[in-house]
Design goal:
This protein has 257 residues and is an alpha/beta fold. It is 37% helix and 16% strand. Helix 1 crosses helix 7, helix 3 packs parallel to helix 5 and helix 4 crosses helix 6. The longest helix has 21 residues.
C-alpha cells in the first residue's frame, strides 16, 4: 500500500438540481467528491441522499466574495486528498420579467449575485490544479440562456452570457498554468423533479448532464473552450478514476530522489 489517496473532484453548486446529478454521476464513476456549499441544511440533505456513498464529503463555505473564496481555497489546499478537477455548477433561479422593467441597480445586483461567484471561484480555486502529474480540469457548467436570449428571462440571459464569456477567457488564461478550463454548455433546460411534468422530451436529465461531465473529465480530448451537452450524450462514462493510484510513473520514480 502506498498510503496515497485517490484524487477528488470538487463540486461547487452540488446541492442544486443540476449539481445533484453531477454528484451522482461522479460517484457512479468511482470518483471521490467534495461538495462546497453555504447552506448547512442542503449539505446535510445531500449527505443523506448519498448516505451509502463513502466517497462523498461536504465542506461549508461561500464563493460570494473574494475573501470567502480565498478561505475555501485555503481549506481545500490543506486537504490530504489531491485535487483532480473543479466543477463549477453554481447557478441561481431564473428571474422572470422584462429587462426594460428593471432598474440598472437591479441588473447590477443580478450580475453581482450570478456572475461574480464564478469569478471568485476561478481566481482562487483554479491555481490549486496546476502542477499535477495528471491532466487537471476546471469545468464551468452553463445553460441555454447564455447563447440565446430567452423571452421573459432577459436578466438571466445577460448574466449567463457574461459567465459564458468569462469561461472563454478562463480557458485561455488557464493554459499557462497547465490546466484545461472549459464550459460544459447544456443546450436545453434540464429536466428536474420540479419541472418533470412539463418537460420536453429533448431536455436532458441532471444525471445525463453529470455523465457528460464525467466523460469530459475522463476521456474527452476536445480542447475547445465551449463543449456542448445534449440528449445525444447519454452514453455511460467509462473509467473515471478507476485507474491505479498513484500512477505507474509516480511509483516507478518514487525511489529515485
Amino acid at each position: 500500500m502506498s498510503g496515497m489517496l485517490a484524487p477528488e473532484v470538487l463540486v461547487l453548486g452540488g446541492t442544486g438540481n443540476v449539481g445533484q446529478g453531477i454528484v451522482a454521476a461522479l460517484l457512479e464513476a468511482g470518483s471521490p467528491v467534495l461538495v462546497v456549499g453555504r447552506d448547512p441544511g442542503r449539505l446535510s440533505a445531500l449527505q443523506e441522499q448519498f448516505a451509502d456513498e463513502p466517497g462523498l464529503e461536504t465542506l461549508l463555505g461561500s464563493l460570494a466574495d473574494d475573501g470567502s473564496a480565498r478561505t475555501v481555497a485555503e481549506r481545500v489546499a490543506r486537504r490530504r486528498r489531491p485535487l483532480r478537477a473543479v466543477v463549477d455548477a453554481m447557478g441561481g433561479p431564473y428571474n422572470r420579467g422584462r429587462v426594460l422593467d428593471r432598474s440598472g441597480d437591479a441588473l447590477l445586483q443580478a450580475l453581482q449575485a450570478d456572475v461574480m461567484p464564478h469569478v471568485h471561484a476561478g481566481r482562487h480555486l483554479l491555481p490549486l490544479l496546476r502542477g499535477g502529474a495528471q491532466a487537471r480540469r476546471y469545468v464551468v457548467v452553463g445553460g441555454p440562456a447564455g447563447f440565446k436570449a430567452w423571452a421573459g428571462h432577459g436578466e438571466t440571459s445577460i448574466t449567463m452570457s457574461a459567465t459564458r464569456m468569462y469561461a472563454q477567457v478562463l480557458h485561455q488564461e488557464a493554459q499557462a498554468l497547465g490546466v484545461r478550463a472549459q464550459m460544459l454548455e447544456v443546450s436545453n433546460p434540464v429536466c428536474t423533479p420540479s419541472n418533470a411534468a412539463n418537460a420536453c422530451i429533448e431536455w436532458p436529465s441532471a444525471l445525463l448532464v453529470g455523465r457528460r461531465l464525467v466523460s469530459l473529465l475522463d476521456t474527452c480530448t476536445d480542447n475547445r473552450a465551449i463543449v456542448r451537452c445534449d440528449t445525444r450524450d447519454a452514453e455511460l462514462p467509462r473509467g473515471l478514476l478507476n485507474q491505479e493510484w498513484p500512477p505507474p510513473f509516480s511509483r516507478n520514480t518514487a525511489g529515485t530522489a
